[in-house]
Amino acid sequence: MDSAIIDPLDAKIMATIRTADMLLSHDDYCMNYLKRGSGRRHCKLNL
């Protein structure tokens, strides 16, 4: 078997896969990464 069996409804797993695709240059211009990440809440840094 060349791939893992995953739960596509698990948001953390899917975010990890999108990040890996981006870092491995499987996502042209990071469009999938940016499209899926744009709806997330951004954490606020307290500096």
Name the beta content range. Answer: under 5%
The secondary-structure class comes to mainly alpha
Task: Give the end-to-end Cα distance, rounded to a whole number of Å.
Answer: 47 Å
Tell me the Rg in angstroms: 13 Å
Q: Residue share in helices?
A: 40-55%
* Main beta-sheet strand count, sense and barrel state: none
Q: Please, how many helices?
A: 2
List segments where confidence is low: pLDDT < 50 over at least 5 consecutive residues.
Answer: none
This entry's quaternary arrangement is: single chain
Number of beta strands: 0
Q: What is the ordering of alpha helices and beta strands?
A: HH
Please explain how this structure is put together.
α1 (about 10-25) runs antiparallel to α2 (about 30-35). The chain is flat, with a radius of gyration of 13 Å. With about 45 residues, it is an all-alpha fold. It has helices at about 10-25, 30-35. It has two helices and no strands. It has a domain at about 10-35.
Which key features would you list for this structure?
2 helices; 47 residues; 0% strand; single chain; mainly alpha; flat
Topology:
Blueprint: H1 11-23, H2 31-37
Helix pairs in contact: 1-2
Produce a short descriptive summary.
The protein is 43% helix and 0% strand.
